[in-house]
Amino acid sequence: MPETDIKGPATARATVLVRTTGALRSPVAFSVLAGVLIGALFLVGTGADPVTAYGAVLSGSLGADGIGSTLTTTTSVLGLALALAIPLRAGLINLGGDGQMVLGGMAAVVTGLYAPGPAPLTVVLALLAGMAAGAGYAALAALCENHFGVPLLVSSLLLSYPASSLASYLARYPLKEPGSSLPQTRQLPDGVALPAFGSSTVTVGLLLVALAAAAYWFTDRRTAIGYEIRMTGLNSRFAAYAGVERKGLTLRLMATSGALAGLVGAIGVLSFPYRFVDGALTAPGYTWTGLTAALLAAAAPLGTVLASFFFAVLQVGGLSMERTTEVPRELTQVLQAIVIVFLAARLRFPHRWFRKKAAAV
Questions:
Q1: Looking at the predicted structure, is the pLDDT value of residue 349 above 50?
Q2: How far is the C-alpha of 351 from the C-alpha of 24, rounded, in Å?
Q3: How far apart are CA 251 and CA 253, in angstroms?
Q4: Are 357 and 17 contacting, i.e. CB atoms less than 8 angstroms apart?
Q5: What span, in angstroms and rounded, lies between the C-alpha atoms of 61 and 315?
Q6: What 3 state SS string does the chain have?
Q7: I want to staple 50 with a disulfide (CB 3.0 to 4.6 A). Which of 43, 70, 116, 273 is the partner?
C-alpha cells in the first residue's frame, strides 16, 4: 500500500482537529461560549433553570409567533451594523449612527408628506432622501476630521445630538399631527409605505438591507477598494505608503456609512406606524447593538450578518424568557455585555495546548 494512503486518514483527522480547535480558539467563539456559560450561572443564581430559560429565548424568537419580530429587529440591527462595520473595516469608528438614522427618517417623512406623484415613486424618493440625508451628515463628521483635526470618533458622536434635537423639534411643532398629544408627525398618505410580507411586520426593508450586506461582501472580497479598506484597517501607514489617500477614503466610507444609517431610518418610518415618532428610532438602541455586532464580527461581512441575527434573537427572545421563567429580559443585555468584555480582553486558550493535541493525532 502506498505511503500516501496510510497517512491519508491521519492527515485528514489532523486537519479536522486543527480547524475545529482553531474555530474554538477564536476570540468570537470563546466570547459567545463564555457569555452563555456565565449567563447560565446567573440563571442558576436566580433559581431559574438555564435550559428552560434558553429554550424560551429560542422558541420566543425563532418560533412561529416570534420569527416575524426577530426579522423586523434584524432589519434595523443589521442595517446599523453594516453602517458601522464599513468604516470600522478601515479602522474608523462612526458613533453617529443615531443622528444619521434620525435625519434619514425625518427626510423620508418630509418627502413622503410633500412629494407629488404616485405612491410607489414617492416611496423610492423617500428612501433616497433618507440615504442622502444620512450620507451628508456623516460626511460632515469626516470633513471635521480631515480639515479641522477633530477625531472622527468625537465629531460623529457629538453631531448626533443636534440632529436628534432638530428631528425632535420638527416632530413636535411644524410637522406635528394636529390634535395628537404624542410627539409625532402626520401619518404618511395611503400607499406611501414599504410592502410587507403577508400580515407580518416584516417589510421589503429586510431585502434592501440584505442587498446592502451582499454588496458589502462583494466589495470587501472582490474589488480593489475592498482590499484598500482592509489594508488600511490592518496597517494605515503601510496603506498610505502604498498610495491609499486617507482623507478621501475616510470621506467615502463615512458617506456610505451614513447612507446605510439613513436607509434604516427611512425604512423605520415607511413601516408601521408610517410616521416619525420622536424617540422611536433611537429608544431600542439599534446603533449600539449594531456596533456590538460589528465589533464581535471584526467588521467582516458574513460575520456581521450572523452577529446581528444573534443579537436580534437575544433581544426578542428576552421578552419570551421573561414571560416563561420570570427572569428579567435585561439578562440578555448582560449576555451581550459579557460577550463584548471577553472579546475585548481577547481571551483564548493557550496555543501550545492545541498544538500538542494536533501533533498527537
A1: no
A2: 11
A3: 6
A4: yes
A5: 8
A6: CCHHHHHHHHHHHHHHHHHHHHHHHCHHHHHHHHHHHHHHHHHHHCCCCHHHHHHHHHHHHHCCCCHHHHHHHHHHHHHHHHHHHHHHCCCCCCCCHHHHHHHHHHHHHHHHHHCCCCHHHHHHHHHHHHHHHHHHHHHHHHHHHHHHCCCHHHHHHHHHHHHHHHHHHHHHCCCECCCCCCCEECCCCCCCCCCECCCCCCECHHHHHHHHHHHHHHHHHHCHHHHHHHHHHHCHHHHHHCCCCHHHHHHHHHHHHHHHHHHHHHHHHCCCCCCCECCCCCCCCHHHHHHHHHHHCCCCHHHHHHHHHHHHHHHHHHHHHHHHHCCCCHHHHHHHHHHHHHHHHCCCCCHHHHHHHHHHC
A7: 43
- Rg of the chain (C-alpha set): 23
Task: Count CB atoms within 10 A of the CB of residue 280.
Answer: 17
Alpha-carbon distance of 153 to 158, in angstroms, equals 9
Res. 220: pLDDT tops 60:
yes
Report phi then psi at 270, rounded to 5: -85, 5
Task: Please give the Cα distance from 235 to 349 (Å, whole number).
Answer: 26
Digit-coded pLDDT (tens) for 326-338: 788 777 878 878 8
What tens digit of pLDDT does each residue of 308-325 get? 999 999 999 988 888 888
How distant, in Å, are the alpha carbons of 14, 87, 105, 141, 201 from that of 197? Answer: 47, 32, 22, 37, 7
* Mean pLDDT to the nearest integer, 174-202: 94
103 vs 20, higher pLDDT: 103
Q: What count of other Cβ atoms lies within 10 Å of the Cβ of residue 115? A: 16
Mean of per-residue pLDDT scores for the chain: 88
**Residue 239 one-letter amino acid:** A
- List the one residue out of 81, 97, 75 whose CA is nearest residue 258: 97
Mean pLDDT, rounded, for 158-168: 97
